[in-house]
Amino acid sequence: MVEMSENRRRMEKGELYYAFTSELVKARSRCTAACHAFNNAGDVTRRTKTQLWRNIVDDRTPLPPQAATQEEDDELFADDAWIELPIRVDYGTNLSLGKNVFINFNATILDTCKVTIGDRCLLAANVSLFSGTHPLDPDVRNGTKGPELGGEIHIEEDCWIGGNVTILPGVRIGKGSVVGAASVVTKDVPPYTVVAGNPARKLKDVPRGTQAEVTSGALDALQRDYAKNEYDISNDSVA
Question: Which positions fall inside the Maltose/galactoside acetyltransferase domain (predicted)?
Answer without folding.
Answer: 8-62
